[in-house]
C-alpha cells in the first residue's frame, strides 16, 4: 500500500526530537564509488578489517577484554559499506534503547533495588556465619 511517500516500505519517520537516520548504502568517498574496481577493493578492505575486529571481539568474549564492544565496533566498520550491517546496527540500537527505557521504569527499578538488597543481606549473613565459625581466616588456611 503506497501512502504517497517516496520512502521504501517499512521505513518510518524518526520520532520528534530524534535525529534522522542516515540513508542506507556505501559511505565510501565519491571518487572510490565512481570506479568499480576501486570500489570493489574498498569493500574487500572494509570487510577484512571489520572481520579482524569482529574475530578479535569473539576471542575477547571468554578472555579479559571488552568483547561485545569490540564486536559492535567491527559491525560499525562493516556498516560503513554494507547495508546488511547497517540494518543490524539499527536493530541493535533500537533494542538497546528499548531496554534502557524498560530499565528506567520505576516498577522495574524498585524491583531491582529490592532484589539487590535481598541478595546483599543474604551475602552479609553468609559472611557473618563464616566469620563466627572460623574467625577471620582465609578458606585455604582452615585446618578442620
Structure write-up:
The chain has 144 residues and is mainly alpha-helical. The chain has 5 helices and no strands. Helix 2 (36-60) runs antiparallel to helix 3 (67-79) and helix 3 (67-79) crosses helix 4. The radius of gyration is 25 Å and the shape is elongated.
Helix content: 55-70%
Estimated structural class = mainly alpha
State the end-to-end distance: 77 Å
Fraction of residues in β-strands: under 5%
The average pLDDT value, as a whole number, equals 81
Report the oligomer: single chain
Poorly predicted ranges (pLDDT <50, ≥5 residues)? 1-11
**Total strand count, please?**
0
Number of helices: 5
What series of H and E elements makes up the topology? HHHHH
Largest sheet: none
Instruction: Using the alpha-carbon principal axes, give the shape.
Output: elongated
Radius of gyration: 25 Å
Chain-wise SSE layout:
Blueprint (H helix, E strand, L loop, with lengths): L29 H4 L2 H25 L6 H13 L3 H21 L2 H29 L10
Helix pairs in contact: 2-3, 3-4
Give a summary of the structure in a few sentences.
By secondary structure, this protein is mainly α. It has helices at 30-33, 36-60, 67-79, 83-103, 106-134.
